[in-house]
Design a protein that fits this description.
The chain has 109 residues and is an all-alpha fold. Helix content is 72%, strand content 0%.
Length: 109
């Protein structure tokens, strides 16, 4: 329920009690009151869960970015070592370089 709909529905629920003469026939007032109670009870939980989700997502993005930067630094070090024919560097470089296959400069046609 949106920020504008919630106050509107709350006012209607109040008017159902204070001005019942405008109530259309067959309006499920008992069900509306149950639903309204559910909305009022669950909305704060939903907002808290959403805030938790946003904070978790921010943390995951930041941590992921930082660990990826470190991984790129290691990859570049291995790449340089492979160019210098350092022992074991070529195998590690070839394994890690699979991540970047198909990227880079495209040959001119």
């Amino acid at each position: 329920m949106g920020d504008k709909s919630e106050p509107f529905v709350g006012k209607v629920i109040e008017y159902l009690v204070s001005e019942p003469q405008f109530m259309p026939p067959n309006l499920p007032v008992v069900e509306m009151n149950k639903d309204w109670s559910a909305v009022k009870g669950l909305t704060p939980l939903e907002r808290a869960a959403n805030l938790l989700y946003l904070n978790l997502n921010d943390t995951i993005l930041l941590a992921g970015s930082e660990v990826h930067d470190g991984a790129l630094s290691y990859y570049n070090s291995v790449k340089y070592a492979a160019r210098l024919n350092a022992p074991d560097a070529k195998g590690v470089y070839e394994d890690l370089s699979k991540r970047f296959e198909g990227q880079g400069k495209k040959p001119k046609e």
